[in-house]
User: What shape does this take?
Amino acid sequence: MKNVILASGSADRQEILNRISVPFKSIITDIDEDSFKSRISDPIDIAKTLAQEKAKAAKKSLLEKKIEGIIIAADTLVELNGQIIGKPLDEKDAFRILKLLINRTHNLITGIAITETSSPKMIKDYESTKVEFLPLTDEEIRNYLKCGEWKSRAGAYSIRDKASLFIKSIEGSSSNVIGLPMHKIFEFLKQEFNLNLLNEY
Assistant: This one.
């Protein structure tokens, strides 16, 4: 059985793997995301590049520790009319972001990168899901922000928690909105890395 390494400290991504009973280890990578965002304009390219850099950093760390395994890395961002919306800096910034998104449809883009410590192969891809919000008053936004789930989340919300109250529709992969497009990861692991998550776990 191959070790699965999740190159992310995201509680949401870890929860996805826990729910499907895939044993994994988590490693947090330290990359300068802003340096890549300043050089790349296309949201899809940014998400894929950041996922790749996280995978490469995780691979380097694991090789130094002589730990073998398959590495899954991801980066999620929100795109609205060509504008990239990342994680809020603080509660005031979270309010600004949600004001932009209410009563509108935005794209939630997740870049993924999968590699293995024993191979130079690196698979990169992305998934985009359309999310539409209901209209909210300023008071409703402020009351939502009190729960704190906006922290460290692209778009300043979490679909699996209280934000589910004002998400009108989702078009595309639901697991992608949480941070990992599992249907693509399942196929890539099976086809490229000989790891079938249905058969082995």
Q: What stands out?
A: The chain has eight helices and seven strands. The beta strands are 4-7, 25-26, 70-80, 83-85, 105-116, 119-133, 167-171. The domain at 4-200 is CATH 3.90.950.10 (Maf protein).
